[in-house]
Amino acid sequence: MTPVVILAAFCGAMAVIAIGRLVLNAQRDWVDIGSVLVVVGITVLATFWAALEEGWFSPVGQALLALIGTCIVGAGVAVMVRYWNTVQLSNAS
Question: Transmembrane residues, as ranges (predicted)?
Answer without folding.
Answer: 6-24, 31-52, 64-84
